[in-house]
Design brief:
The structure holds two protein chains of two kinds.
Chain A (H helix, E strand, L loop, with lengths): L5 H5 L1 H24 L4 H58 L4 E11 L18 H13 L4 E4 L2 E3 L5 E4 L2 E4 L3 E4 L2 E6 L2 H8 L5 H6 L3 E12 L11 E2 L3
Antiparallel strand pairs in A: 1-7, 1-8, 2-3, 2-7, 4-5, 5-6
Chain B lengths: L7 H26 L3 H57 L4 E11 L6 H4 L5 H13 L4 E4 L2 E2 L6 E4 L2 E4 L2 E3 L3 E6 L2 H9 L2 H7 L3 E12 L12 E2 L4
Antiparallel strand pairs in B: 1-7, 1-8, 2-3, 2-7, 4-5, 5-6
The chains are: A alpha+beta, B alpha+beta.
Chain lengths: ~240, ~230
């Protein structure tokens, strides 16, 4: 057997001490590492952390979803604007069709039978209002850019006829109107008036036979006409 | 002093000891790093906040979805109603093509030339008086030389020419009217057409099974007229 060297022999106690510490440390180490993952606190924390992570993910998704919905709502609300455009179009056609009560600036032309006393050789028929007089005024007002027409508040539409029967006008088949007849035109008052007053124009043609007065009005009101119930006219070309 | 000579075994043992020490230190430091109790309190609070926010978001999502449904449905209903009303009013206004039974009237100036006959050429008032007769006889739609007659259609002399819907039209004038053909024809023949014939104008009235009226082709733009304010 080989003899233990002298110097080792001398350090026997030192060596024993070192091994002792080494042993303790190893034991502690093993215990520590085995204990760590099973710590109660850390397991709970891990669970909570997982829950928080899941909640954060859901939260993020919901935020995105809600943002998408919000922008959709504002988009749809903007689309109300195109409904507004439709409403404007409808109003335009309703005004032209006469199915909407309207108002606005314009002029009123007041027609009445001549007030002058007639001599025996004058034909009294010449001095009362005729259909053609009213039609003449209406036509001139249309040419001058009138936007809506009426007589004594009754609407003149595309198919409105004017029938003078004695001292009254029959229009829109059923509406009977008594003199004086106020022909109402909504439109540029100056353009309407000057068109009627043209030399040799409507005013000049009528003034010798009937009473005609023109006045500007700031707020003319004309009723709507009940929508027509056509029996023969159909939409389209066939 | 003589240097101490250490054996290799001691060196190996020291090495292992050093290694173990390092591991030990690292392990115990990790343990310090492991979440302390406060960490789980914090996480719980965070979770609570998140849950509350998620609940709020869910509620907002529901109300937004409902709002979208309403808007989509409401918008669609409103749009359909508006479009239907637009269609009807366009038709009533004369802004669409239309057709139906009625009459066709051809009206021409008296034959021959010269100042005397020109006096009896067809004038604007002859046409609008004729239209008035048609309207009184129940016409539902009228066109003159391809120009639809609307509430704003003027028939007016510009010099020696007649202008309808701002367009010049030339004789012979062709007037199409939709309505009861018999009623329209009879009321014209017994009235204004007889007068036209006395003035030597050439005029024919024929009953038609189907006349086609064009749509009003003028831009519709209003600057003065507006709907009455509802009271």
């Amino acid at each position: 057997m080989k003899k233990i060297p002298e110097h080792l022999n001398k350090n026997k106690f030192g060596l024993m001490f070192v091994f002792f510490i080494l042993g303790i440390m190893l034991a502690t180490q093993f215990r520590l590492t085995r204990q760590m993952p099973t710590t109660f606190t850390s397991e709970r924390t891990a669970l909570l952390a997982r829950q928080v992570a899941a909640a954060e993910k859901k939260h993020k998704e919901l935020v995105q979803e809600v943002e998408g919905l919000r922008s959709k709502v504002s988009k749809l609300t903007e689309e109300q604007d195109h409904l507004k455009a439709y409403q404007d179009t409808l109003t335009k056609y309703q005004i032209l069709a006469g199915t909407l009560a309207v108002e606005g600036r314009g002029i009123e032309v007041i027609l009445d039978d001549a007030k002058k006393p007639l001599t025996t050789d004058e034909n009294p028929n010449l001095y009362v209002i005729h259909d053609a007089d009213v039609l003449l005024v209406l036509n001139e007002l249309r040419a001058a850019g009138a936007e809506a027409l009426g007589i004594n508040g009754e609407r003149v539409t595309a198919m409105t006829e004017i029938r003078c029967i004695g001292p009254t006008i029959l229009m829109n088949k059923t509406k009977r109107i008594a003199a004086p007849f106020v022909i109402q035109a909504i439109g540029n008052p100056d353009a309407l008036r000057s068109s009627l007053m043209m030399p040799g124009g409507v005013y000049d043609q009528l003034k010798d036979f009937i009473t005609i007065n023109i006045k500007t009005s700031e707020n003319i009101k004309i009723k709507a006409l009940t929508p027509p119930d056509f029996a023969y006219l159909k939409e389209g070309e066939k | 002093m003589k240097p101490v000579k250490l054996p290799y075994t001691l060196m190996v043992v020291s090495l292992i000891l050093g290694f173990l020490l390092t591991v030990q230190i690292r392990v115990s430091r990790e343990m310090v790093n492991a979440p302390p109790l406060e960490r789980s309190f914090e996480l719980t609070a965070r979770l609570k906040n998140l849950t509350a926010e998620i609940d709020g978001l869910m509620q907002e999502k529901t109300s937004l979805t409902q709002k979208i449904n309403l808007l989509e449905k409401g918008g669609k209903v409103a749009e359909e109603a508006l479009l239907a009303e637009i269609d009807k009013n366009r038709f009533w206004a004369g802004a669409t093509e239309a057709h139906g039974p009625g009459v066709k009237i051809i009206l021409n100036n008296p034959p021959g030339f010269g100042t005397k006959s020109e006096l009896f050429n067809v004038r604007d008032e002859d046409l609008f008086n004729l239209l008035n007769e048609l309207k009184a006889a129940g016409a539902e739609g009228i066109a003159v030389n391809g120009q639809r007659v609307t509430a704003l259609t003027e028939i007016r002399m510009a010099g020696s020419k007649i202008v309808i819907n701002t367009k010049v039209v030339y004789p012979p004038y062709e007037i199409l009217a939709v309505g009861n053909p018999d009623q329209l024809k009879t009321s014209l023949e017994n009235g204004i057409v007889a007068t036209f014939r006395e003035w030597q104008m050439e005029v024919t009235v024929t009953k038609e099974n189907n006349v086609i009226l064009p749509a009003y082709d003028q831009a519709i733009e209003f600057n003065y007229v507006k709907p009455q304010e509802a009271k």
